[in-house]
Amino acid sequence: MIWLAGAVGAALIVLVLRDIFHTLGHPEGQGSVSNLVLRAAWRLSRRKGGNGHFARLVGPLALLAVIILWGAVAVFGWALLYWPSMPAGFTYASWPVGGSSGFLDGLYLSMVTISTLGFGDIVPTSVWLRVITPLEALFGFVLLTAAVSWILQIYPALTRRRVLAIRLSVLRRADVAMTMSDPRSLLLPKLLDELSIAITQAGVDLREYSETYYFRDANPDDSLAASLPYAVELGRIGATASAVDVRISATVLNCALEELAAVLRHRFRHEGDSMPEVLAAYATDHGHPPA
C-alpha cells in the first residue's frame, strides 16, 4: 500500500504539470483544474449577490487560489513519492532516524525542496532519490515562472477589454448613434471598423485567456459586458444607413459581435438564440443587467 502511495504521488505531479501546460500553453486555455476553481469561485460570488466586494475581487482571488492549489497538490504528490523511502533512503542531520515520522518527514522535505530553501537536514542517499529531489526544486522554479507568466498574460488582455469598454461608453455619451444617418460623414466607417477590430480582439482574448472572463469591473463605464449593448445599437442603426460604406462597416461590426457572442455561448454557456440575447446574458452575469 505504501508503494501505491508513491504511484498516487506521481499521478498528482503529472496532473499539476498537465494543468499548467493546458492553462498556459494551450491556445484556448483548457486547464481542467484551473477552470474548475475559477468557475466555482465565480458561482460563489454570484450566489453572494454578485455586486459586493468579493465579486469585484473574485478574479484575482481565484487566480491566486489556482496557483496555491497547484503548489499544494505538487507538494503533497512529491511527499507521497518520498514516503516509501522514509527513513531508510535518507540521512537525517538534525534528529535521530528513530524519531522519524515517515509521511510528515516527506511532507517537510517536499516543502523545503520545492521552495528551494535547501536546509540540508534531510539528505537523500539512494541514487533515484538523488535524481528526483533536484527535479522537485526545478519543478518549484517552473511553478513560480508559470505563475508570473500567467499574470503577465492576463493583465494586458484585461487592459484591452477595459479600453474598449471605456471607448464605447464615451461614444454613447457623445451620442454617436444620432449621426449614423448622415451620408456626408467620412469618420463613421473608420470608427465602426476600429470597433470591429477591438471587439474581435476581445473575442480572441476570451478564447485564449478564458480566465479573464472572471474579472469583473464594478463601474459600468469600465465594463465591456455593460458597454456592448451600445455596439449592438451602432451596428443595428448603421446597417440601415443611407451611405454604402457605413452599411458595410456596420455589417462587419455585426459579424464581430456575432463571433464574440459565439465565444460566450460555447465557452461560458450563455443561453440565447440571438446575439443581443447572449450579450444581455453576459451583462447580467457580470452584474450589469440591461436597462
Give a quick summary of the entry:
This protein is mainly alpha-helical. Helix content is 69%, strand content 2%. The chain folds into two domains: 2-147, Orthogonal Bundle (Helix Hairpins); 151-285.
Write up this protein.
The protein is an all-alpha fold. It folds into 2 domains: 2-147, Helix Hairpins, CATH 1.10.287.70; 151-285. It is built from 9 helices and 2 strands. The chain has helices spanning 2-25, 32-47, 53-82, 103-114, 127-173, 188-208, 224-238, 244-267, 275-285; strands spanning 90-92, 122-124. The protein is elongated, with a radius of gyration of 26 Å. The model has no long low-confidence stretch (mean pLDDT 88).
The run of helices and strands is HHHEHEHHHHH
Number of helices: 9
Instruction: Give me the CATH architecture of the largest domain, please.
Output: Orthogonal Bundle
CATH topology of the largest domain: Helix Hairpins
Helical content class: 55-70%
Q: How many individual β-strands?
A: 2
Q: What is the terminal-to-terminal distance?
A: 61 Å
Sheet with most strands:
2 strands, antiparallel
Q: Kindly state the mean pLDDT as a whole number? A: 88
> Which structural class is indicated by helix and strand composition?
mainly alpha
Task: Give me the oligomer status.
Answer: single chain
**Unreliable runs:** none
General form: elongated
- Rg (CA only): 26 Å
Q: Describe the strand arrangement of the main beta sheet, using strand numbers.
A: 1-2
Highest-level CATH class of the largest domain: Mainly Alpha
